[in-house]
Design brief:
single chain; 878 residues; mainly beta; Methylamine Dehydrogenase, Chain H; Neuraminidase; 3 domains; four-stranded antiparallel sheet
């Protein structure tokens, strides 16, 4: 180990933070200056940026640094342009901590006014919300994997908030787990004298997979709590009051006033322990990891201590730190064996350098190149220094849309990189060649089928060491996976619900890179498309034996493209479809029941309350069909290989949504035209037809008339009554973090050209359409009953359905009378009479006759009288 003092400030509290993407040390000093330092080049000059003084906390996301002060100010500094972006928030009392959350879209902060403040950075101006706390806020920690934030309070409690949605939810409170603390510093913080009793940490920290929370206890130990049940599962003692601690990979560094200690987090063994001292008798302020083996320690007297080679990579003591001692770590009996027992076969995505760049350009992502250029002033890079963790082609170069869901290679196998690991990358010409495959069973060339689950999205930050995406989303809830590509790390999955009264959010570690999912009220089904794995887990027994995993047999070049599970009260069936058209059926215990050969499967969706399955197949390039299968009738095809209005379009999803209405009619939202289609009359052979219910883009943007909404879009979840349940997206193609609250958009049949047009005609067509759908469902509801449903939970209340049908009938008459009246006003009597002939009730015809008489169109009134007589004859004959 070697020690070096980095002296850039004469005095003041210096907070040290290491920026791994830039390989730069960022030091924020309480005297109002921050510096960006290239520690690998002692001759280079640091970059200095003016900032607010009396800093209490610092948080960095990408090229943005945020800080808080004792004056109650929150400032953001742009590390790329080397200038302050100004104050984003201010309060009367001191702010004590902050944290970037939701991929940097929001900031949490708080302090002495006992409020947790949420700052939304996505708009032109920062919008804030506040949550009242039980006591003063001390510290905030953010769990990227589970979208949770732990908030330390002065009363010794730690509150756990879900920050996934726009509105924060308090999930759990750990009572009396940290030392009580009251800040008295209101201006300059003098840890050496006046405020020395405040120099101990109350912060918490999450493990990368979000499974454990580290909390400093009053007994001078760091305690580990399991998120699954909030039990304390391990402790790491120190020799005095803990000033700070930091977990990096498998190494936990704990800092006291003059000693630092490093533990192996998995085994609990001490890896390294030593004392240290600053010049001028400064006190330690915070500890930060530098790469995998070194540490930085900030101080109260301006200096930063740099400790090199604190642990050895691959050595016996530092076994888990850099992945070198993996086999020994695995052999050791450990409390966390279930967390760290990952699959030996590393995918190695983006871990190796791509060869073949003709101009010798460093093939990094656009974001990395931009940050490299902007930070050139911070000092040159040495060869081999500051090497990026993951070098990858830009999305334009690789066309990553053709390689979604981590399937970057040809189905038959992975390209081998250094040390036999899979590169997960291709040259441009190879990517374009493999974007199209030959479908053996159809004999035609077809586009590659991307594995798809309803509501799934692409990864948010391709190429990053840690990335995430939604696996599925529907009216019930959503599930997302966090992929951690760092050596020795696990992936994690979180399952959450819009209605938390029926189910509670839960989180678990995943060793596979699941890219498919289907969830209902009772369980979630996960799938790994390339490995052919399916994994079943019950919501209410997330940690018990109510879970299983099995391998699906795949032939050469076959991979899973879609999975689903029915939503019946009992005897649920799992359906697994593949790219070459195998359709496999399993019961909810994983027993294979049946296998069918079809066209290549694109998507699967289960009905809301029946045993029907909706399937989309690929017939040829840009040609698709659908089928409806009744599982309870020995997999009978109710509709088979019928045309479906789907079309590929550049930079658009083929399918934005696929689901059943509450009356079990299949619905599809295509990415090409952003329109909700519902299948009508499908229970009658040869009579099914697709009906457009809503053009989402027109509805959201007010037919393009609202300039502020021109880039808005929606993410469909399902139909609720006569409305589309969806997420409103103001920025981006996919739902991000935080997740917007669901809204409902009323159905609007696309008959209008402009937003302000009279809607009588649309109301007429909508009442006819919805009335026919409901009438068809009522007629066939006895046939759709689940034979195994003994308690009748799956049945719709017939009286309520009849009431809604009556409402459609009233809307039908009302809209026709509106159209009739407008035609009379315009003296279009032939049109008015044509509309009158559409009216089906005597009461509405009487109203039309009165309108005619009032406007003195007696001939028209007489014709309407004849219509009434004909209607009465028809009624009598029935």
């Amino acid at each position: 180990m070697s020690l070096k003092n980095i002296s850039q400030f004469p005095d003041g509290n210096s907070y040290a933070h290491y920026h791994p993407q830039l390989d730069r040390l960022v030091v924020t000093n309480s005297n109002g200056v921050l510096k960006i330092i290239n520690v690998n080049d002692p001759e280079s000059l640091p970059v200095s940026i003016d900032c607010l003084s009396n800093v209490t906390s610092v948080s960095i996301h990408g090229d943005k640094l945020a800080l808080t002060t004792t004056e109650g100010k929150l400032e953001i500094v742009d590390l790329a342009t080397h200038e302050s972006l100004g104050e984003k928030y201010r309060t009367a009392l001191s702010l004590r901590d902050l944290a970037y959350i939701n991929s940097g879209n929001r900031i949490l902060c708080g302090g002495d006014d006992s409020k947790l403040v949420v700052i939304d950075l996505q708009g032109d101006e920062a919008a804030t919300k506040t949550i009242a706390l039980q006591d003063q806020l001390l510290d905030i920690a953010y769990d990227h994997a589970g979208e949770l934030s732990s908030v330390s309070l002065s009363n010794g409690s730690v509150e756990i908030y879900s920050v996934f949605n726009e509105e924060l939810n308090l999930n759990h409170t750990l009572q009396n787990v940290i030392t009580r603390k009251i800040h008295t510093s209101m201006d300059e913080v003098d840890y050496a004298q006046e405020h020395r009793d405040e120099l101990y940490t109350t912060k918490t920290e999450w493990t990368k997979d979000g499974r454990y929370l580290l909390v400093p206890g009053a007994d001078n130990a760091v305690h580990v709590y399991n998120r699954e049940n909030w039990n304390k599962v391990r402790s790491f003692p120190s020799d005095g009051r803990i000033v700070d601690f930091k977990l990096h990979g498998n190494n936990l560094a704990i800092l006291t006033l003059n000693v630092y200690k490093v533990y192996n987090f998995e085994t609990g063994k001490t890896v390294h322990e030593d004392d240290f001292e600053f010049r001028y008798e400064g006190l330690p302020l915070n500890i930060e990891w530098h790469d995998k083996t070194g540490l930085f320690i900030g101080s109260t007297h301006g200096d930063v201590l740099m400790l090199k080679n604190v642990i050895s990579v691959g050595g016996e003591e530092g076994g888990g730190g850099g992945g070198g001692g993996k086999s020994k770590a695995r052999a050791a009996a450990s409390l966390f064996v279930d967390e760290f027992d990952e699959d030996e076969e590393e995918e190695g995505e983006g871990a190796d350098k791509v060869e073949g760049d003709e101009e010798g350009e460093d093939l990094t992502g656009d974001n990395q190149r931009e940050m490299d250029d902007l930070f050139e002033r911070a000092g040159p890079r040495e060869n081999g220094k500051g090497k990026r963790l993951y070098e990858y082609l830009s999305e334009e170069e690789l066309d990553l849309d053709d390689f979604d869901n981590s399937i970057l290679d040809d189905v038959g196998g992975h390209a081998q990189g250094k040390n036999g690991h899979s590169n997960g990358l291709h040259k441009k010409h190879k990517a374009s060649n493999e974007a199209r495959t030959y479908s053996k069973n159809t004999g035609v060339t077809s586009t590659r089928i991307h594995p798809y689950s309803p509501g799934s999205t692409s990864f948010a930050n391709r190429g990053d060491a840690v990335d995430r995406r939604y696996l599925t989303m529907n009216n019930i809830g959503y599930a997302w996976i966090v992929i951690n590509r760092e050596p020795g790390a696990c992936n994690s999955i979180t399952v959450s619900f819009f209605d938390r009264s029926s189910n509670s959010e839960y989180h678990f570690t995943a060793h596979e890179k699941f890219d498919l999912a289907s969830m209902n009220n009772r369980c979630i089904l996960l799938g790994d498309s390339t490995k052919g794995l399916i994994h079943y887990k019950s919501h209410n027994n997330a940690g018990s034996s109510e879970a299983w995993e099995r391998q699906v047999p795949l032939v050469t070049d076959e991979y899973i493209t879609s999975i689903c599970i029915t939503n019946l009260p009992s005897f649920n069936t799992i359906v697994v479809g593949t790219n070459i058209g195998y359709l496999r059926f399993f019961n909810q215990y994983g027993v294979c029941l049946n296998i069918i050969k079809t066209q290549p499967v694109v998507a699967l969706a289960p009905a809301s309350t029946t045993s029907n399955i909706f399937m989309i197949n690929q017939v040829a390039a840009n040609v698709y069909s659908y089928s409806i299968i009744d599982i309870n009738q020995d997999n009978k095809f109710i509709q088979q290989n019928c045309s479906i209005p789907l079309k590929e379009r550049a930079n658009r999803q083929l399918i934005k949504g696929i689901f059943f209405s509450e009356h079990n009619d299949p619905c599809v939202v295509g990415g090409y035209d952003d329109t909700v289609f519902i299948l009508s009359s499908w229970r009658e052979a040869g009579n099914a037809r697709w009906v457009p219910l809503l053009n989402c883009h027109n509805s959201i943007t007010e037919y393009g008339s609202n300039e502020n909404k021109k880039n808005w879009s929606c993410w469909p979840l399902g139909l609720v009554n006569d409305s589309l349940n969806c997420l409103l997206l103001k920025n981006g193609q996919y739902p991000g973090f935080p997740l917007p609250l669901p809204i409902e958009i009323e159905m609007e049949i696309p008959t209008k050209v402009k937003h302000e047009e009279d809607g009588a005609e649309e109301e007429f067509v909508r009442s006819v359409t919805m009335g026919k759908l409901l009438s068809d469902s009522l007629t066939h509801r006895e046939e759709e009953k689940d034979d195994d449903d003994g308690d009748g939970d799956a049945d719709e209340d017939e009286e309520a359905m009849m009431e809604r049908l009556n409402q459609y009938s009233m809307s039908f008459d009302k809209s026709l009378l509106k159209m009739f009246g407008e035609s009379c006003k315009e003296s279009k009597l032939n049109k008015a009479f044509a509309i009158a002939k559409l009216i089906k009730t005597d009461k509405a015809l009487i109203a039309a006759a009165k309108i005619s008489e009032r406007m003195e169109y007696m001939s028209l009134a007489s014709k309407i009288g004849q219509l009434r007589e004909q209607l009465q004859i028809e009624i009598d004959s029935d």
